[in-house]
Design a protein that fits this description.
14 helices; six-stranded mixed beta sheet; elongated
């Protein structure tokens, strides 16, 4: 998709198939809407009085207004003026872009970016605008028997109107949003592919394809014998029950430019980076391409959704794609342990004891608590990079869904500064997260009589998300570490079933804010 800006106050002179102008819920017109109203002899005000409430995300299409060159003027609700914020802006942009897609338009123009949003930097407005256009233009048809090109969104060109003073900042934001949108699309597609297509081998091949696309990304895909040589017994214990061979994927991104300070372009005020040294940032993504639960098999209902159990891995792919597109001036490592969790005569059994790469032993009390078993070895592997920070991303626990639903991702970290940076990015990127405890008092629940630890807590269902994070914490003591449990946020169920692309926005914002 092509994004551009145009600085103008003559909104009525813009020739475009569709022009979005904002209207507040109190009937107040935004500056662009007011210009259109005056040019059209008060047609906008008359319409608002009679037919439009201005609720955030509402749209009304006006065609061929006199004195206006746009074929369609789309009134978009911004909600109450006193409450107008980044979330209302995003909702408005999504509504306009969705309307354009529904109309089958190839290009559109938004003047919503010309409406100042309190305490939101213009760069973020540009990013959210492009991200919205990408999000509603996403279309999955990879596994349809006969994909219908007519069903694919046609929106290819998106122009943001700006005030002169904010033009450069919004242009920068559009570039960020374009890269972010492409990364999220990759994450969504990998998540949406069925388990018989998106296997560990397939993910390895996709990593190699990413390396071919971006020369700044070097890729290694380790096979079973190489994984065995590393001593990743915990990871391999999960793969034992499947005919599909495991893979350990290493993607190493290094920016072309020499390292130099880079501020938070999306923040209104630059925020101090807490990076302790010049080591790379490492992202670790859970890559269970299908999860039956193993011998501790899951109920049949909704088991098809366990193809989404590799959304942590998909997030790593999407984030790397976005940062490489932006030619970020930093160093980023993506680690993806990937396998299936299947029941068979060779599968790991409840009560088995396995040895991790760190040398610590684990009693597997529940084979459906497999994500932590593959992540722990990847976290040990991450030590070799002497990282400035490690963030793992995983659809780890149903307990996190119980606690936070599908609104917030669960954030765990013993490092307050790292947690604060990630929470700030979550808020700014409108990709919310909520910090949950990962305290030593919970570690006692992982005690085992037969190994150094158990893979689930001995306290039943209590604090399930926290005990999972505490398990991972035992393998992440050599560096600053955070864990994102995305079990409730990385995909939607029901009629809207599909991968969401989260938390790519959170991670991209965090990375953009780091001084390298």
């Amino acid at each position: 998709m092509e994004f551009s800006t145009q600085s103008t106050a003559a909104y009525h002179q813009i020739k475009t198939p569709a022009l979005a102008v904002g209207v507040f819920a109190d009937g107040e017109l935004s500056a662009p809407a007011d210009v259109i109203d005056r040019a059209s002899d008060n047609r906008v005000k008359d319409t608002v009085k009679q037919d439009f409430k201005g609720k955030a995300g509402d749209v009304l299409v006006l065609r061929h207004l006199p004195g206006v060159r746009a074929e369609r003027v789309v009134l978009v609700g911004l909600g109450k003026q006193a409450d107008y914020n980044a979330k209302a802006f995003q909702k408005a942009e999504m509504a306009f872009a969705r309307q354009c897609v529904a109309l089958g338009l190839t290009q559109a123009t938004t003047a919503l970016t010309a409406v100042p949003c309190p305490e939101v930097h213009a760069t973020l407005l540009g990013r959210l605008s492009a991200q919205a256009a990408h999000h509603v233009s996403y279309h999955y048809d990879q596994t349809m028997g006969k994909p219908d090109p007519k069903q694919r969104p046609k929106l290819k060109k998106y122009t943001a109107l700006t005030e002169r003073a904010s033009n450069q900042a919004i242009q920068q934001g559009l570039a960020q949003g374009d890269a972010l949108g492409q990364g999220m699309a990759l994450t969504r597609t990998l998540g949406n592919l069925p388990g018989n297509v998106c296997t560990p081998t397939y993910l390895g091949n996709q990593a190699k394809a990413l390396g071919r696309q971006f020369k700044s990304i070097k890729v290694s895909v380790l096979e079973k014998k190489q994984i065995e040589a590393l001593g990743m017994g915990s990871f391999l214990s999960v793969a034992k029950g499947s005919h599909e061979a495991p893979r350990f994927i290493v993607m190493h991104y290094k920016g072309k430019s020499p390292a130099k300070p880079q501020g938070r372009s999306a923040a209104k005020t630059a925020t101090k980076s807490h990076t302790q040294d010049n080591g790379p940032i490492v992202l670790v993504g859970k890559g269970i391409t299908f999860d039956t639960g193993g011998i501790s098999i899951k109920p049949a209902a909704a088991m098809d959704e366990m193809k989404f159990d590799m959304c942590g891995a998909a997030t790593v792919f999407g984030t790397l794609h976005a940062m490489a597109t932006l030619q970020w001036e930093g160093e980023l490592i993506g680690l993806v342990p990937t396998c299936e969790n299947m029941p068979s005569g060779t599968a790991t059994k409840p009560g088995d004891v396995v040895k991790s790469m760190s040398g610590q032993t684990i009693e597997v009390l529940n084979t459906d608590a497999e994500g932590r078993l593959i992540l722990c070895d990847a976290l040990t592997y991450a030590e070799r990079y002497k990282p400035s920070a490690v963030i793992d991303i995983a659809t780890l626990t149903g307990a996190c869904i119980v606690a936070l639903g599908s609104v917030n991702s669960g954030l765990f970290s013993p490092d307050d500064e790292l947690a604060e940076d990630l929470l700030a990015s979550a808020k700014r990127a409108l990709d919310p997260a909520w910090r949950l405890p990962v305290e030593d008092d919970y570690q006692e629940f992982l005690k085992s009589n037969f190994a150094d630890m158990a893979n689930i807590g001995n306290n039943g269902p209590k604090a399930g998300a926290t005990t999972a994070a505490c398990f991972l914490a035992r393998f992440a003591t050599a560096y600053r570490w955070a864990h994102l449990d995305i079990a409730g946020t990385s995909w939607l169920g029901g009629a809207q079933k599909g991968a969401s692309g989260r938390p790519v926005p959170l991670l991209v914002d965090y990375l953009l804010g780091q001084k390298r």
